Amino acid sequence: MTQSADLALVTRAVHFAAVRHKDQHRKGEDFAPYVNHLAEVAELLADAGADSELIAAGYLHDTIEDTGTTHEELAALFGTRVADLVREVSDDKSLPKDERKRLQIEHAPHLSHAARRIKFADKTSNVRSVIHAPPKDWSEQRLRDYVEWARAVVERIRGADPKLEAAFDRVAQEADAHFAARDIASPPPQTDAPAA
Questions:
Q1: Count of CB atoms within 10 A of residue 148's CB?
Q2: Which three-class secondary structure state does DSSP give residue 181?
Q3: Which of 66, 99, 143, 174 is 20 to 30 A from 72 via CA?
Q4: Annotation marks residue 53 as catalytic
């Protein structure tokens, strides 16, 4: 592709994702537009040197899973590679949430190299959100469990991209420090010693 064609592909992906996710917001306290997450995923991929198709797939990575967009529709608009990558990183929403999470861990080592890069960028963005804009209705334990689950997914895809892995590791370490600081600020309640 030419530079102009690359730019056109990514621009079309941004517009398509923004329209398809227009009524969606992040679960965090700030209720940020969902497209912010997609832009962060694409930015992480771009910073790691991804090509235009991978960046476009980063913008589109949740369209099949969350908007009812079909693989065929994506293939017609963005090409087979982009559509295949989006399908590869999409969960089957007909399954219960715990099963989808289990399958992400199980399927992670079988992802293509490009899909692994999207997965790293997605988990990095999601863990960052858990730290900086956590969902109001999530308990402290659920936040911690999410970070540990994200780690379990990415541990099975290491070797995909050093820059993306380093970005995830920085955010995971930030999460550890965040939770450790909360532990210090709010130690568990002391129980009285039993009477002798």
A1: 11
A2: helix
A3: 99
A4: no
Which residue in 6, 51, 66, 84 is the catalytic one? 66
For the entire predicted model, the pTM comes to 0.91
Per the residue annotation, which of 6, 65, 84, 91 is the catalytic one? 65
Whether 66 is catalytic is yes
Outline where the chain has alpha helix (H).
3-20, 34-47, 52-60, 63-67, 71-78, 80-88, 97-107, 113-132, 140-155, 162-185
- Euclidean distance between CA atoms 115 and 93, whole angstroms: 19
User: Token digits for 22?
Assistant: 């227009």
What is the tens place of the pLDDT at every residue in 88-147? 999 999 999 999 999 999 999 999 999 999 999 999 999 999 999 999 899 999 999 999
Contact assessment for residue 159 and residue 120, using Cβ atoms and an 8 Å cutoff: no
* 185 CB-near residues (< 8 Å, 6+ apart): none
Question: Hey, what are 139's tokens?
Answer: 């308990």
Amino acid at 111: L
CA distance 46 to 117: 11
